[in-house]
Amino acid sequence: MGEPRHHCKLWLLLLALAPWLHASTGAATTFTIANYCAYTIWPGTLAGSGTPQLSTTGFELGPGQTVRLAAPPAWSGRMWARTGCVFDAAGAGVCQTGDCGGRMECRGAGATPPATLFEVTLGKGGGEDFYDVSLVDGYNLPVVAIPRALRGPGACNATGCLADLNRSCPTELQVVYGAGAIACRSACEAFGQDRYCCSGAYGTPAACRPTSYSSVFKMACPRAYSYAYDDSTSTFTCSADDYTVAFCLPTSGIKESDAVFLGAQIIGGRGTGAAEANDIAPPAYGNGGAGAYPPPTSDSYSGGGPGGAYLPPVYNYGPGGDRIPPAMRISSASTTTYIRPWLPLLLLLLCFT
Ligand SMILES: *[C@@H]1O[C@H](CO)[C@@H](O)[C@H](O)[C@H]1NC(C)=O
Ligand SMILES: *[C@@H]1O[C@H](CO)[C@@H](O)[C@H](O)[C@H]1NC(C)=O
After folding, report:
1. Whether 119 contacts 285, CB under 8 Å
2. Is position 170 within any domain?
3. CDD domains annotated for this entry (predicted)?
4. Which ligand has the nearest atom to the CA of 177?
5. Ligand 1 center to 248 CA (angstroms)
6. Which residue among 173, 217, 278, 280 has the greatest number of ligand 2 atoms within 8 angstroms of its CB, and so is best to mutate?
């Protein structure tokens, strides 16, 4: 009869060590995905080959909502957001931009271009992370990536594209829906020519140079990849515990010294980036470029005092930011909180009665 008790002690020991085990072997990095857009978006995640998919590969994110996802060391992959999606109860449907195989969960499918991409390769054993925001597959939403909780050297620049490229997009690259452009294609996707795609005879960094089309992207968003070999000005390194990937971040959410590099023009002390434009109805005429709108009369983002960083609430699900599908948020969160404290007691009861 000593056997079961012996097992019990083992389990109790494991239980006691669980938090430590989680901390040392578990996720080293989190991604805080924040929706500052005035509308719902559907972020997607895709792991690079050889690394596991994250706990979610696609989910709904309402305005002002934030989800934190944990990633293991050396994880690499990309994130983007879909717009204008309609899904049925089974998760099948379609999105206007960024679609991934017509499903809520992308399950290994990438974004249909055009889509603004955040790309990252995490370091191993505390090594450097590499990250970028890419317009190589076109543009559908303003995205900024900001490293947080820095734990090593590295410039750790914020990168991304806050400009409204829907509006400054050359006509021949526009994806038009209803009254205006909803996304901007890359020249590679639009024309399929080697010189735009850096393929064939143009398949080397020396042969593939910026074009008038990639220059439109580069001028609008100097830190984002504008074509495939744009590495020197577009790849950043850091060692951070968290990368905030913010969609439609208002200008007040970034450092002023970063503004021009991220495509957020400050005119008259006030940002005129894409996110601000989302607050008000776009004009019927297009292509005015950033700054064509009059500033909105009320600024819903400036609650945070100087710098005015508006932070949406963070819904952090479980240690390390376990993924919870939005539809299950409340029940899962409370399940986690209420069940766990009872587990040790339950085990004790089972072991010693
Ligand atoms: C990155 O940030 C550093 C300061 O932290 C700055 O000197 C450098 O110019 C930035 N790099 C780019 C490409 O903007
Ligand atoms: C570009 O179009 C997408 C798709 O409709 C839209 O969600 C987004 O708000 C537009 N971009 C900006 C900066 O307004």
Report:
1. no
2. yes
3. TLP-PA
4. 2
5. 22
6. 278
∠78-81-85 over CA atoms, to 5°?
Answer: 140
Number of domains in the chain: 1
Decide if pLDDT at 17 tops 60: no
103 within a domain of the structure (yes/no): yes
Distance 84 CA to ligand 1 centre (A): 35
Which residue range forms the structural domain that includes residue 244? 26-258
Instruction: Give Cβ neighbours of residue 6 (< 8 Å, ≥ 6 apart).
Output: none
Instruction: Establish if 316 belongs to a structural domain.
Output: no
pLDDT score recorded for residue 172: 96
Q: Mind spelling out the 3-state secondary structure of 19-77?
A: HHHHHHHCCCEEEEEEECCCCCEEEEEEECCCCCCCCCCECCECCCCEEEEEECCCCEE
CB atoms within 10 A of CB 149: 11
pTM score of the predicted model: 0.73
Residue 323 lies in a domain: no
Q: Are 221 and 163 in contact (CB under 8 A)?
A: yes
Ligand 1 centroid vs 120 CA: distance in angstroms? 18
**Which ligand is in closest contact with the Cα of 222?**
1
Q: What is the pLDDT averaged over residues 113-125?
A: 95
CATH value at residue 122: 2.60.110.10
Ligand 2 atom with least separation from CA of 182: 2
